[in-house]
Amino acid sequence: MGTYTARDRARAALVSLAGGTPDSVSFRHEAIAILHRAIGVDGWGWLLTDPGARLPVHVSGENRVVDQALRRFFRMLPQAWDEPGGPGSQPPRQGLATSGPVTTLSAQTGGDLNRDLSWREVWGPAGVGDKMRVQFNAGGACWALVHLHRDSSRTHYSEDDVKFAADVAPLLAPRIRADLRAPGPRDADPAPEPGTVILDQDQSVVAATEQAWRWIDRLGVPGPNPAEPLPPHVYVLATHVAASPERRPARVRVRAADGTWAVIRAAALTTGSQVPAGYAVTLEAAPADDLAPLLMRAWRLTCREREVARLVIDGLSTEDIATALFISVHTVRDHLKMIFGKMGVSRRQDLVATLTGRTPTAAHSAP
How do residues 4-15 score in pLDDT, each as one tens digit? Predict the structure, then answer.
């Protein structure tokens, strides 16, 4: 697509964007616009991920194909995207981000897109050609995926296109991770009580509590169409349970539109239920035990710093932390100084507030 000079300009623009201050939505749209100028993009989808679950927590983009058949697409995703579809293909891998940082469908299928199940049944008939998946890794974790596609009238993505995407992905990943560090709201409405949605085996809504719909409204991610009224990542979560060994429960941590945090859990309904092979989805405020590990990774805390921070959240004194970790009081204080420096706080209560999704106070004091 673009010349190398144009790509140099695009790379510089992405560096500037990553270091700037646009809101998360504007950042993602501008990044796509720059990628379009560099390698050519006719449709796209951002999937912000929970690095612990390795599953999406927010799906956005310009992709009418998926919006028209969301459940069908996500049911195909583990098999059709991570592995070429068709007879003789390998078993589907579980979760997202299982292969290289940048992959293309043309490369995975040896140039024959028709080998891929989702392309045969969804993308190809809609006029979509090659697809590229870009993985954004920072600190050993995947924080987002971007799916880019070209119309079928255009050539496949080239090795140079893949190289450019692979080169710029590490420039954007730290910014995506840093967006999770934004403080929570000071005056958010009280969180609703936990809510439950029952899905049948095709992931159609059978029933839902009033609190569940309140949570869905709070998340601020509407379903793509009347037949699929739930946020896209709910369908991904149910699909993951269906594809996992022994249909194990799964959960993701999600930031709502108002800046508060929720946990969404999905579990298969047990034998004997009136809805065979269906799913129970629960939505609730994120407990500290669920949220703190994610935010510790977002703040780049080391393993030892996470241990210290966890005990601070539990309310232990400096002396008790030293005893629990078999280290000196002086070492605990050194760890606290490093943690405070990374997080930009000066008090234990502000550390606790930040790592449990609340807003720290303005006051400061020494460790």
Answer: 688 999 999 999
Residues 6+ apart with CB under 8 A from 197: 205, 207, 208, 209, 212, 230, 234, 280, 281, 282, 283
Query: Residue 59: beta bridge partners?
Result: 47
pLDDT in tens, 9-34: 999 999 999 999 888 989 999 999 99
* pTM summary value: 0.85
Separation of alpha carbons 171 and 167, rounded Å: 8
**Domain 4-181's class?**
alpha beta
Give the DSSP per-residue string, 150-185: EETTSPPPPHHHHHHHHHHHHHHHHHHHHGGGSPPP
Domains 195-286 and 290-355 share a fold: no
Give pairs for 118-121: CB < 8 Å, separation 24+: 118/73, 118/76, 118/77, 118/80, 118/81, 118/85, 119/80, 119/85, 120/85, 121/72, 121/76
The two three-digit tokens of residue 264, written as one number: 């969404």
**Tens digit of each residue's pLDDT (9 = 90 or more) over 289-309:** 999 999 999 999 999 999 999
Which CATH code for domain 290-355?
1.10.10.10
The percentage of the chain sitting over the pLDDT mark of 70, rounded to a whole number, equals: 87
Query: Does CATH place domain 195-286 in 3.30.450.20?
Result: yes
What pLDDT, on a 0 to 100 scale, did the predictor assign at position 185? 81
For residue 336, give the amino acid letter: L
Give CA separation, 31 vs 98, 169, 215, 259, 344, in Å.
23, 10, 30, 22, 28
Smallest Cα–Cα separation from 47: which of 147, 185, 195, 168?
A: 147
